[in-house]
Write a structure and sequence with these properties.
Elements: H1 2-50, H2 53-58, E1 60-68, E2 72-75, H3 76-88, E3 92-97, E4 103-107, E5 111-123, E6 130-144, E7 147-156
Parallel strand pairs: 1-7
Antiparallel strand pairs: 1-2, 3-5, 4-5, 5-6, 6-7
Protein name: Nuclear transport factor 2 family protein
InterPro entries: DUF4440, NTF2-like_dom_sf
Domain DUF4440: 41-150
Length: 164
């Protein structure tokens, strides 16, 4: 009877160690992915905030698609044209990620899904910076040849925009 009890307890301990060990590995991988995407997001939007079209372009795939609830769908060429126009304006736009809203999920061997909320600030010539709005986004990140790039952006919940 005692041998049977020891055997059952041993099996339970081994099972728990296996299950917990797998969860720790999964949690560690998820944490690592989260940190990696957070860093990529920071670099990408640093280029956006500086209006650095060269660095910005490096983070977009050739088949890039941007879905916007007000502007509809546009592709890579239109996105880059929009960035070039932004650099020529005297007004500035700055994006800030609200980190407490960030979610990152693995997308199999393709890459990662980034979901969150970000705030944009607008500065017109001769005026101080003001909040233009807080919006939701989804980014589909592709990891190819050890480099992260965004293949799809969905930007939504633009009820009120204050760019003036």
């Amino acid at each position: 009877m005692i041998h049977r009890l020891i055997l059952i307890l041993s099996l339970i301990v081994i099972s728990l160690r296996t299950v917990c060990g797998q969860n720790v590995t999964t949690d560690a991988a998820q944490t690592e992915l989260y940190k990696e995407i957070l860093m990529q997001d920071s670099i990408f939007f640093s280029a956006f905030n500086r209006c650095d079209t060269v660095a910005y372009r490096q983070y977009l795939t050739n088949d890039f698609e941007f879905y916007h609830d007000l502007g509809g769908l546009h592709y890579l060429d239109e996105e880059m044209q929009s960035m070039r126009e932004l650099t020529q304006k005297k007004a500035r736009i700055r994006r800030q990620l609200l980190k407490n809203t960030l979610e990152v999920h693995k997308l199999g061997d393709y890459g990662a899904l980034e979901i969150g909320v970000h705030r944009f600030y607008h500065t017109n010539p001769g005026q101080s910076e003001h909040v233009s709005g807080t919006y939701k986004f989804i980014h589909v990140w592709q990891k190819k040849d050890n480099a992260w790039r965004i293949s799809r952006i969905i930007s939504y919940d633009h009820g009120k925009m204050n760019n003036n």
